[in-house]
């Protein structure tokens, strides 16, 4: 019993022989008997060395590495998500700074999404542990000290593409100088600039589709050599994304539902992934144990939305949805109608649909895709937490197209330079 009561002493001998030996020598010099430490009066030793009793515990505790990455995250896409995934892989905890509206305006031009919307998108990612709102665009010395001292950040992360301030200097120069900077690989084929360009083209496509007399103007503004009258909806825009099976695996949870799990199913286009998508997925996930998301094919989206849609192709939209922390699994290219076979195959217990959705002008109003789950009594309409839609976000850009056109001209030049000077960067 005596050994059990004071086992921390023997742990100290085992794990810290030099420390314990020093204490014994000190005790001997003071004329104390070593038998004193064998059990007689041993309760006084913790007071002599109050930190000694936790030495073993501390030795076995590995310090958690905290990494920081910031960004505007305006028109957030799978490239942003992949950057944060890579950043999280460099540490144990990922803290993300979301740049303020004022800072974006000063350095890049007007943001499309509000701070609230951008915070919802970043906070909804499965790799993010903490979010700092209204972060500065530049890593100043004062802010860097705040990151290191208050947020206990070990490393500051950014992609291999340069981030320059208006005066041409590197926004991360101080972090690099301090030796606390790490670099990740930029995701190929997508950027917010690219997405703004797609939206502007879609606006022109729609105008051309409504009035064939505008086709000549459309030709001049888009730089297209030959434009013919649009008879059928066009499907999306050219994407430079290079999808790989490995990327999908990296985004996937890799786990299926348990045998008794309550599987909830929700479907949609999930084009131009926005805060409204995040919130409806959160609401759906709360209704069960496993959230399965069906993502319509590009052709289906084009048929229900019209010319120029989807803005993002199926692979791009799938990665955006998979990056959401509330999503467990997806069906890439799910059918428009929820069939009985689908319900059985995936053991779906509940099919849900939000109150806010895009209008479907090309679909017969009598064609209800949820006839089967309704007949089975497993269909439910849930209140959409936000009234944002892909069209409403796109309209913000189309309405102010001159502003965003000028903003994009500058960004396109910098991105062109990046790709011209691009070299291989290891990473995933």
UniProtKB/TrEMBL annotation:
Keyword Lipid biosynthesis attributed: yes
Domain Cytidyltransferase-like: 68-197, 265-358
EC identifiers of the protein: 2.7.7.14
Protein keywords: Lipid biosynthesis, Lipid metabolism, Nucleotidyltransferase, Phospholipid biosynthesis, Phospholipid metabolism, Transferase
Protein name (record): ethanolamine-phosphate cytidylyltransferase
Organism annotation: Chenopodium quinoa (Quinoa)
Pfam family, one: CTP_transf_like
High-level lineage: Eukaryota, Viridiplantae, Streptophyta, Embryophyta, Tracheophyta
Pathway the protein contributes to: Phospholipid metabolism; phosphatidylethanolamine biosynthesis; phosphatidylethanolamine from ethanolamine: step 2/3; Lipid metabolism
Family from the record: Belongs to the cytidylyltransferase family.
Annotated GO MF terms: ethanolamine-phosphate cytidylyltransferase activity
Membrane spanning stretches: none
GO annotation (BP), single: phosphatidylethanolamine biosynthetic process
UniProt keyword Transmembrane helix present: no
Gene: LOC110692296
CDD domains membership: CCT (cd02174), ECT (cd02173)
GO cellular component: cytoplasm
